Amino acid sequence: MRHRLLVPAAAAACMVLAIPASAAEPSPGAPGIGDSYYPSYGNGGYDVSHYDLRLKYQPDTDRLEGTATIVARATQNLSRFNLDFALDVESVLVGGKKAAFKATGDHELEITPAGRLDSGKPFTVVVRYHGTPSEVEVGGYTAWLRTPDGGVAANEPEGAWWWYPSNDHPRDKATFDVSVAVPDGTQAISNGTLQSTTSRLGWTRYNWRSDKPQATYLATLAVGKFDVTTDTTAGGLPVINAYSKDLGANDGAARASLERTGEVADWLAGLYGPYPFNALGGYVPNVPTGYALETQTRPFYSPRQFARGANVSVVVHELAHQWYGDSVSLKDWRDIWVNEGFARYSEWLWSEKEGEGTAQELADYTYALYPADDPFWTVRPGDPGAENQFHRAVYDRGALALQALRNEIGDEDFFTILQRWPTEYRYGNASVADFRRFAEKVSGKPLAELFDTWLYTPSKPAAAAARSVALGAPKAPAEPKSWRKIQATNTVHSHGRDAHRGEEHRGH
Ligand SMILES: [Zn+2]
């Protein structure tokens, strides 16, 4: 009797609960997150909070196999949704149940779960996959860097597709556990802290954890034969650096640069507030590229950055990004200035501190270097276009804009802004307009015209507009001592696709 009575009651309760959720019919999540430069990057309809990547990599063959477990929450009633990915998928589970999937476009994985996903509810996706990343081309190139002893994933804005499925846009950040099995004697380097290593049957597994929100392109993986150094900062943070055993003549200069990571980070913390993450370090694999990248907690550096001796300036650049770019990420790839303008300006501040030329001297020299008819001035750092996203002007004119701001509002307000901004938007996203409003709020001055002049006008600002910049400067400013080191970091973000086309930006 009781049993028969309870059944209808339970069924009725379910129906009542089901009504609000069914108010909106489920529909497919958008195949892009809405970026103005890269409409198909990222996806709509859900938000990822954690990636668990369990991988196995064979350096001899470049075969990568893995299981990605993605913890997410639906932001609409979903009938299906996309991940961004380029390797071969074997199976997909959503909520533990088999889901249908198909590859569409050149980097979309379209997933149809067995049942609808309700808005606001958490769900888990398990993707099993494999591939040879160096052989997988999207848009004519692979971002996966093959080395004689392994492979490396570090590129911007595309990097994730070749090693894990994701919602590939900085607007959807998540924490990461990256566990990689490699043959004994080989190392696997990733972000954050090394939680443990285990060895079994000829394979060593490295378990890395990045426990603060991290954009997908800032996750990195390097497999190869590395010499790993460990240390602790004065504040107790672990510093883990890794050097390929194959750096040859660049080995000493690489170490003389990266081993100053703790010192540089402490100096930056004095300017920008407490370091935002759980670990520090960097790695130099034996890649033939020329760029560096601010992969979270553990920047990637090409050996070529150290071909002319130690370059602490590039370390300053990548570590400055930990605050400006990583903790505070851009909202849209159009907002690249909120990353690069500040990373370059940090190099100027380091030069000033080291007595190798003040930021003002570097600004004067930069301003004078490019005549008014140089195409340099046609690139608008505040909205450079996808094709010019990593153009020299985004860096140099981007830093000029900050020097102009400093001269307009004075050192006290300027350095208050630089320190408070990373706290105001910590672990979040911000746009160029957000920065202008923040600077106006702190300084109490209207700054629309200054930002328009330096970031949005496709011509050289007149000497009058640049009055503070050029004030007191000799007609032909002398080259600051730090100039060449800083220009050598111009290969910092040469884009994978540009490198493929042979258009790598180089310092002159
Ligand atoms: Zn940069």
C-alpha-based Rg, rounded: 24 Å
Structural class of the secondary structure composition? alpha+beta
The CATH superfamily title of one domain: Neutral Protease Domain 2
Which consecutive residue ranges, at least 5 long each, have pLDDT under 50?
A: 1-19, 494-508
- Determine the CATH topology of one domain: Neutral Protease, domain 2
CATH class of one domain: Mainly Alpha
For the terminal residues, how far apart are their CA atoms? 88 Å
Total E-strand runs: 23
InterPro entries: Aminopeptidase_N-like_N, Aminopeptidase_N-like_N_sf, Peptidase_M1, Peptidase_M1_aminopeptidases, Peptidase_M1_dom, Peptidase_M4/M1_CTD_sf
EC number: 3.4.11.2
Family: Belongs to the peptidase M1 family.
Keywords: Hydrolase, Metal-binding, Metalloprotease, Protease, Signal, Zinc
In short:
With 508 residues, this protein is α+β, with helices and mostly antiparallel strands.
What does this 3D model show about the protein?
The chain has about 500 residues and is an alpha+beta fold. It has a domain at about 330-500: Neutral Protease, domain 2 (Orthogonal Bundle). About 30% of the residues lie in helices and about 25% in strands. The chain contains 13 helices and 23 strands. It has an eight-stranded mixed β-sheet, with no helix packed on it. Strands 1-4-8-7 form a four-stranded mixed β-sheet, with no helix packed on it. Helix 3 crosses helix 4, helix 5 packs across helix 7 and helix 8 (about 410-425) packs across helix 9. About 50% of the residues are buried. The structure holds zinc ion. Zinc ion (ZN) binds next to helix 4 and helix 5.
